[in-house]
Every structure is written in C-alpha cells, then in structure tokens.
Amino acid sequence: MPSKRFKKLPENTRELAAESVDKLISVIKQNCTSKFDESLDLSLQINNKQKKNEISIRTVINLPGGTSKKVKVGVVCEENKSQDAKDAGAEVIGGDELIEEIKAGKINFEKLICTPGMMVKLSKLGKVLGPKGLMPNPKLGSVTNDVKKAVIDAKSGQVEIRNDKDGNIGVSIGNKSFGDEKLIMNFNAVIDALEKEKSNNTIKGDLIKQAFITSTMGVSYKIKLGKSI
Questions:
Q1: Do the beta carbons of residue 148 and residue 84 sit within 8 Å?
Q2: Which of 15, 64, 144, 185 has a 20 to 30 A CA-CA distance from 179?
Q3: CATH number of the domain at 15-67+158-222, out of 3.40.630.30, 3.40.50.10330, 3.30.190.20, 2.60.40.10?
Q4: What is the pLDDT of residues 130-148, one digit of tens each?
C-alpha cells in the first residue's frame, strides 16, 4: 500500500512533456517530502545496440558541485607513497600485508587505488575484487603513481558511470540540500562525459534515448536534453 506521503505526490508524471533539467529541479525538490535529505537521481537509457558492436560505457567523472557521499578509500602502494595517501585522507593503506588481508576477504573500503608497481600482485585477486566492482583500473584513474590526486578525486565528488546490459545508467547528481546551481553543474558534467564517450565510440544516432530525473522517494520526470548527443 502506498504511504499517505506518496499518495500526495503527482501522478503519471512520465506522461508529461519533457522539460529542461533546470525547470525540473525545483519541481523535484517540492516532491522531497520525506524527513531525510533525498538524493536527486538520473536514469539514462543509451543506444547501446549498434549493428557492428554493443556499446559499453565505463568512465569516472568529477562532479563540480560535489556529492554528499563519504567514500572510504583504500590504497595499495609502496611504503614511500604511504604518507601521500594518508595526507590525502585515505583510511586504509598498505602494501603486501593489505593485499593479504584482501585475499582473506577483509575488505573495509569502498574505493581501491593502487600503484602500477603493486598492481602486478593485486591483479591476482580479480575473483575477490572484480564482483564487488573494486578492482583498480588505469582507465578510471585508480591505477596511478599520483596516489595523492587519486585519493582526493575519490573523496571530492568523483562518480563512476557505467551502463548495464540493457543500456541503462543510474547516477546521483546530489541531494535536495544542494543549491540548484550545483545540481545543474553536476548534470551538465554527466552529459559532457557522455558526449566524450560518444566521440570515442562509433555510434550512429543519438547516444541517449531517454533521460529521467527523480528523487529517492519521489516520482520521475522526463528530461528534455539541451543538445542531441
């Protein structure tokens, strides 16, 4: 049974004409009637079914408006880079001993960064880290010698964008408490990242087929994109 709060929300919003995200944000915020700080989430469907191949997108972006999530970062590195990781705010730092802990199933971090020199050893733990989406990846900036920058990025608004087998992408652009300007900046950053991915792939037609925005406990609205991508 829908709650009294939910029954008060607008109905059949998906049937409404698409609107630009700057107009929808204020509407979404009005629908955030729960007691906690709801997140504003994008749901995108991309045109991943191409004649020659299936498009797979996986990238990270730094949201300029930041995020509300606190990420616990682990770093596998040589001893001479441990201080850089600590200074940047990493909570779990180590070398061979940390790899052994991970191998034993002790995983107390949400993001893992590794130096190239230690990646040879860590790569053997694909069966442990892979299913959890924690295996560091050079393309995503999590295999690097610049440990300090990687940790700062992970903690200051970096999010991963990836599509599932049906071409769906879900990503949060912030919370109700964020100013509209920050939310719009984050939205534009997501769209710009997808534009870049389109240019890196051979895609015919628009990359995004549909785009919706909703809040954690709210209803969704169709977004009118400012540019065709």
A1: yes
A2: 15
A3: 3.30.190.20
A4: 999 999 999 999 999 999 9
DSSP secondary-structure letter at 162?
E
Question: Could you read off the pLDDT of 184-205 as tens digits, one per residue?
Answer: 999 999 999 998 888 777 677 7
Do residues 31 and 9 touch, judged by C-beta distance below 8 A?
Answer: yes
The strand pair at 221-222 and 208-215 is best described as antiparallel
| pLDDT score, position 199 | 76
* Residue ranges for the chain with pLDDT beneath 70: 1-12, 14-15, 50-53, 202, 226-229
DSSP 18: P
Task: Determine the 3-state secondary structure of 63 from DSSP.
Answer: coil
Structure tokens, 130: 């892979």
**Alpha carbons 17 and 52: distance in angstroms, whole number:** 33
Residue with tokens 């895609």, as numbered in its chain = 203
Give CA–CA dist 213/43, Å, rounded. 6
Report long-range pairs for 223-227 (Cβ below 8 Å, ≥24 apart): 223/18, 223/19, 223/20, 223/21, 223/24, 223/42, 224/17, 224/18, 224/19, 224/20, 225/191, 226/20, 226/191, 227/191, 227/195
